């Protein structure tokens, strides 16, 4: 029988309850796809993690929220701002590409990043929150 | 082009297969039917997931992706109205790829000729 895709979710699933409270976790793993969605609390903050792993791509979106307000987000879905940062005037030739980037508070700023993963995001929450405080 | 496959069947199943015709004909027909049925199931499941997002954002994924990557006003509005849209979009993109994949596989399975079985 075909094996389920190993998307590396075991580490994330193991860490989530250790780092978060009130964790809501959904996993859908098949032979050629794996989808993981986690929603939980980190102290007063809400943490949302989504990973979609296919045979060709790993797509992700991670958010830290305070109530409904986005404090920061990491994802690799292309958007106009991220593409312009990466490709300048030729950005429209790359609309199907994955572009790793970080959104600042209220999505009012954006920076390109190296690819992130959920384990790193969960482990680095303290530093990430501290970085928000330090920039006001 | 064909590949050869040796399979094991319990004796009573082999006898049952024989009641439908020559096993060398019945088994490939059954396999083809299985592949078509499973491909259809996977296609329908992927389409159902695509529909959820298409309704939420009132467009198909290709249009959505074009707008978030090219249309600054739309992106600004989207960030206000659906600030976590990326979490939807990454799944939507995947399901859209699955729809295309399973549609292709279903077509391929349907185009594969089936050995002629005698009438039931």
Radius of gyration of chain B: 22 Å
What oligomeric state do these chains adopt?
A: heterodimer
Strand portion of chain A: 35-45%
Give the number of DSSP strands of chain A: 7
Name the biggest interface.
A-B, 28 and 20 residues
Shape of chain B: rod-shaped
Instruction: Determine Rg of chain A (CA atoms, Å).
Output: 16 Å
Low-confidence region ranges of chain B? none
Number of alpha- plus pi-helical segments of chain B: 5
Description:
The complex is a heterodimer of chains A (136) and B (120). By secondary structure, chain A is of the alpha+beta class. Chain A is built from four helices and seven strands. Chain A is 26% helix and 38% strand. Chain A is flat and about 45 Å long. Chain B has 120 residues and is mostly helical. Chain B contains five helices and no strands. Chain B has helices at 11-19, 23-57, 61-70, 72-81, 85-111. Chain B starts with 10 loop residues before the first helix and ends in a 9-residue tail after the last helix. The model of chain B has no long low-confidence stretch (mean pLDDT 93). Chains A and B meet through strand 2, strand 3, strand 4, strand 5 and helix 2 of A and helix 3, helix 4 and helix 5 of B.
Primary descriptors:
heterodimer; A: 136 residues; alpha+beta; 7 strands; 26% helix; flat; B: 120 residues; mainly alpha; 5 helices
Topology of this structure?
The complex is a heterodimer of chains A (136) and B (120).
Chain A: H1 9-19, E1 21-29, E2 33-42, E3 45-54, E4 58-66, E5 69-75, H2 80-87, E6 101-103, E7 110-112, H3 118-123, H4 125-134
Antiparallel strand pairs in A: 1-2, 2-3, 3-4, 4-5, 5-6, 6-7
Chain B: H1 11-19, H2 23-57, H3 61-70, H4 72-81, H5 85-111
Helix pairs in contact in B: 2-5, 3-4
